[in-house]
Batch of 4 targets.
Target 1
Amino acid sequence: MVKLSRLNANLLKAHYAVRGKIVIRAQELEKQGRHITYCNIGNPQALKQKPLTFVRQVLALVEYPELLDRPETASLFPADAVRRARLILEKNPTGMGAYTQSAGMPFIRQAVADFISKRDGIPADPDRILLTDGASKGVQSAMTMLTSGPDDGFMIPIPQYPLYSATIDLYGARQANYFLDEANGWQLSEEELKRSVAEAREQGVNPVAIAVINPGNPTGAVLSRENIIMVIRFARENGLAILADEVYQENIYGEGLKFHSFAKVMHELNEKDVTLFSFHSVSKGFLGECGHRGGYMEVRNMPDDVWAELIKLQSIGLCSNTTGQVVTYLMIDPPGTGDESFALYEKEKNAILGDLKEKARILGEGLNSIEGMSVAVPHGAMYAFVRFDLPHPDGTDPEKMTPSERHKYESARDSKYCLRLLEETGICVVPGSGFGQRPGTLHFRTTFLPPKEEITALVEKMRRFHSSYRAKIEQGAVKSA
């Protein structure tokens, strides 16, 4: 029998907070008949977001091609969905149940290159594009490739998405944290990047790459072009590759803000020495097709022999799933203005994005009205990283603790707070310690994906809970908080 003591130590070390102990407890409560509002993960369709009609129509036709030749199909499916399905089957004649090329279907990789060229006004090479099972698999491939020894390290933002910290642990690499500037809308600071890389090297870490999430998860921040230029310059000066997590590029809500891709800025700078891995996914944006596990990775400034090794790595897993590849294709090449599906597609897309923008406002303004809570109203993505304050129990002084003791203390506090929040209100959020936070601060991450009426109710439940929880600590009723 396999025992815990015989397992890979890297696996035992890894943690993935968004599906951790609090979520397991939420599922237990749900089995007992409790209504749970899951705000722990960006899973739009699980929170009542409807799939786009065009995407599901094309998928239905390519998965069951017999429909294409039935007379009733013309009345059930728009003509452009039928044409698109026929094109996919023509370009992929082996069908949806067969393996594709390791890098993905060539015509979809070309479509991704065309999408990038149209989005950014720059050339893109389909032979430097891989179709992946969601952005996560692309990130893991890049990190596998770049980790050549146990002292190799990755600079990751704090707070971060725990895919990064968990993958670093799994691969036996080292983590170098750089803190985002909460007081400045979670932007990046060059001084902080310099501090991070210097501290890492002092500790024997060899930084090989810097990860940047834009728009931010869990912060909802949108990086300025100036910030991106600074990161590219910093990467060049320090010999780092860049991992640009850009899966929320369609989710921009702040007035006057826009998404700037790392690829475009690097092209404008004529940067040839920094290797860029950029990632996109069908799980986010306005599609919310998380379960179909589709996405792509584009690579720039990589020699042919190195690219061949990346293709070899991809081939070990044979290929990404064909349905995810098709959904990626439909994401980056949607119906055009002359297509029958265009009007409905645009209506559904704009309704989803408009709803997200409104829910971000409702959540941000609502939580900021709660005494002892504060949050930057999200300008992008699907999340808010909420700061909350708690009094300390009598006799507890974090300033007298060692850094290790303080980290353990604060992690226990935000975890216990989120567990109590779940059990008393049915709201499932993730403790800030699961993403990382500055010492002396407490946070939780929440999505704003539930329906608007649930967001409004959620804010009021949090208001009552937070006031009550603080009072219990002051009265000594929550002794270990």
Note: Residues 4-48+347-474 form a domain with the Aspartate Aminotransferase, domain 1 fold (CATH 3.90.1150.10).
Target 2
Amino acid sequence: MIIKTPEKYISEPEIIKTSGNYIYEYSQKPLIVGSKTALAVVWEDLKKSLEDNHIDTRNLEVFEGYPSEHQIQKYKKIAEDIQADGFLAIGGGRVLDTVKAAADLANLPVVTIPTVAATCAAWAGLTIQYDDEGSFVKVRPLKNSPKLILADTKVLLSAPKRYLFSGVVDTFAKFYEIRPSLAYAKDSIHLKIALYASQIALELLENDVFVALDEAAKGIFTGHAKNVVDSIIYLAGFAGSFQTDTGHYSFAHPFYHISTRFPNTRHKLHGEKVAYGILSQLFLEKKSQDEIKKVIHMFEKYDNAFVLSDIGLDRGNKDELQSLAKEIKEEFPYVIWEEEEIIKAFTITDKLVSESKNAK
């Protein structure tokens, strides 16, 4: 078993303002990479703290695009050219995954500062790699997780709630995807630990998300905000930290990965498409319609209950759904269901979500 976790994880409001105190331990001359939106939010406070700690802030790159081989190699080369001693990644999953992979190739430490809580990318010791257009290529394991994560709960709870809701459902997916794996490996200690961590995250989110958002709207950031951020980044990240050859009998993330190869779906966030994958997986697992409907209602609270057309897929296009199912099977051998079962899951899920919407 390989366990990949960060050395330090800090989540508190306005941690950005003292970030240099922690980053200095890992890098004094970092290559700093952030998206335009993320930098607009945190750069002023971050730059001041870095400079207060005598950390070089001159090597700043604005990221655009996807975590492609081209982007990864580009930032690796820039780091080598400037003789950087580390990387600092600021933004959402695309930025963080790109920089983590570049740092991995360059054998340099990386510090992540997420500005949206939409995934656990700030923690994960892997990169989801795409091509330059945004189609999934592969899951790229990395030698290490980031050395340090600075999760500013004020920044993360002040971001558009669509990102937070996407992160909530992506965190729920850890529970729903680990649970069937454990059914096939009942004696797996690491799966039991991962399932327990994901269950704690699910319960914390259900209890605290809307309280935290109500407080954030008033400029208040308490333990509720911390519980939400820690669930999405720390607990979900921790649940994925164990890497073994144990199969994962899951479907939600394979659905997301292959859906990115259909350009009409790229307007949806990671967790939003994972949400549809979870519901389809529950059908494939032969869960009762009552159970599936309960999960649909739960997702509706987070604006994450979708029909196929919401995602950019056509329920009536059998060839499109067949192609999607075929590629999922080819790319992820642990998906145990047959293509026709998968297509039926797509259409039944579409029907159940549509019925729920129309019942309102």
Note: Residues 2-158 form a domain with the Rossmann fold fold (CATH 3.40.50.1970).
Target 3
Amino acid sequence: MKKKLKRLAFEPWGNYAIALAASVQCLNVEPWTRTATTPEVLELGVAASPDSACLSFKACTGHFLEAAREGVEYGVMVNSVGTCRLRYYRMLQQQLLEERGFKLFIFGLGYDGIKPPLIRHFDPRPGPFLKCCVRARAKVLAVDAIEKYAWHTRARELHRGDTTRVLNECLGDLERADSLLDIRRVKESIPVRFKKIAVKKDAIPLKIGLLGEATVLRNRFLNHNIEEILGGLGAEVFNFFLLGEEMKNIFGIGMWGRHSRWTLKRLAAPYLKSLVGGHALDSVANAIRCARGGYDGVVHVCPTGCMPEISVRPILRKISTDMDLPVLECSFDEHTSHLGVITRLEAFVDILNARRTRGNQTWKNRVISV
């Protein structure tokens, strides 16, 4: 009789859940994850969390509560250092679970020696562990590639929904890919699949950058599917939280790259003199990058009450004034109206289109580079 594996729950990280699931196969556990939060999960988290907690905390807490109810034994979440309250979230969530009689234990992936506690606990053999890491990284990069093609194509598609359908088909094939060869085949098929989508040949869509707190940027339920809404309005988006680039920063690889921590600090230096935690540095630096790169505007998203992102909003307004870059601020909590989000995005897109119509037409020749 086959031994039943213990399960490990991840907090939702959008389509990266596919890669995260592949990353734990060497630990002899079964991954338990979702690509997005559900209304029921958020309701669980809201009921259990302090009112002052941010939306990301409530969604993650609800996710672990749902996992614990299903008998999942372990969970894992990202830790933090510095001023962001994320550094305390694992301990608070563990306490909330224990108070409700659940035995799910949450590991943190923080700065804790050479081996994170999760790896120390399961102690996988080096060979299988490295193979899992390589396979997971390949899937992360494939997700990045799929999404970039989707962002580009959705703003130009002739028939609404074609891009999302192809996106989901590619992600499904990637999830089923078990070897590096299979992953490479999926990745090589991505351009061909998206090129088959009928598009408006002469379309020159708006270019909008998405900046802000990583969880909300990547959880389509929490951000009310902002990428698809803007794409449907004829805007090509670029979500600046790319896990492939973030992994390079975490492990100190590619420190001179365009998305490296050193490059971001250098870009943000005229406006941000000290670090305030979270992804606030990324928000400031990438707003400057958008202004210099000819973006029509940016949308800054964060959970209501997120200290790092709220701290830099005055800076983003200064950048907006200095560099003539429209910035839409969107804060999200459990009470945020979906129709309200759509209305604000529609109004923002209308404003950007009006700026193009009455402004200097040299925008047609701008080179967009990120």
Note: The two ends are 53 Å apart (CA to CA).
Target 4
Amino acid sequence: MLPPVKKYTSSGGGKASARARVLAQWRGVDYVPLEKARATPARPVGDFLPALMKEFRLEARQAEAEIVKVWNALIDPAVTAHAQPHNLNKGTLFVNVDSSVWLNEIVRYRRKEILERLQHSFGKSVVQKISFRIG
């Protein structure tokens, strides 16, 4: 024997489609108001993309990637083999050097030249100073 069919009562004031009425009668519960409450309308990408880019720091990451490209193109290959830019923070470029000998060489003799080349490429406001460290 089949279980007794529960009486379907529409909780909404509007007309329900035949499909919605049949589903509600079959389920015994009207889920249409819940489904409407859960459905979020689609938003244009332009509404949330700037906040997302700011959250993921995409502009800063793009600048860092650009610095690595320019570093490898402008700086002497002997230096780039032993020193690579690591991070750019508030106008300071942090560069990791693989040994104390190269750190001493770069800081004493090549720091000013490297800074001038980077400032010429990016501007003085982007790269204000360079900090070399062993890493």
Note: Residues 100-122 form the longest helix (23 residues).
